[in-house]
Amino acid sequence: MSEDAAPVRPILDLIVLDCPDALELARFYGEVLGWGLEEESDRDWATLEPPGGVVAPDRPDGRTTLAFQRIDDWVPPTWPGGAHPQQFHIDLAVPAIAEAEPAVLAAGATVHEHQPSEDGGFKVYLDPAGHPFCLCGGMSS
Q1: In 10 A of CB 114, how many CB atoms?
Q2: Which fold has domain 79-141?
């Protein structure tokens, strides 16, 4: 490669969550985020479409989206520790946690019993498959 050539950088395309039912978990996150479900989605593989649609990953304005993959022997993560610790989690920015919480609970989330935030800046929930995620307050509009 010449010194003038820019390195080829990958573009983050999908974040894929393993789960027992891809369609069910995609519907949960679709409802929470207000994103649509791709037509080809099923119980084995489901992908969400962010507002404005999915843009091809090879374009500079490509959008990262969420996808879900069914795993036959799914075991929910344990958090904050345990036999199956979380590998990652999703933080969702909201203007105010108390205002956003009713919608995530109605969609099927549960409040986790362990709440480590000392200042109330975030709150931990579990999605229907048991993945931890957080609502983080104070998002500016």
Answers
A1: 10
A2: 2,3-Dihydroxybiphenyl 1,2-Dioxygenase; domain 1 (3.10.180)
Q: What end-to-end distance do the CA atoms of the chain give, in Å? A: 44
Q: pTM of the predicted model, to two decimals?
A: 0.78
Q: In what order do the strands lie in the sheet with 90-93?
A: 90-93, 132-136, 122-126, 110-111
> Rounded to whole angstroms, how far apart are CA atoms 132 and 110?
10
Mean pLDDT by 10 residues, the chain (141 residues): 62 84 96 92 93 55 82 90 82 91 95 94 94 84 45
**Distance (Å, rounded) from C-alpha 26 to C-alpha 49?**
10
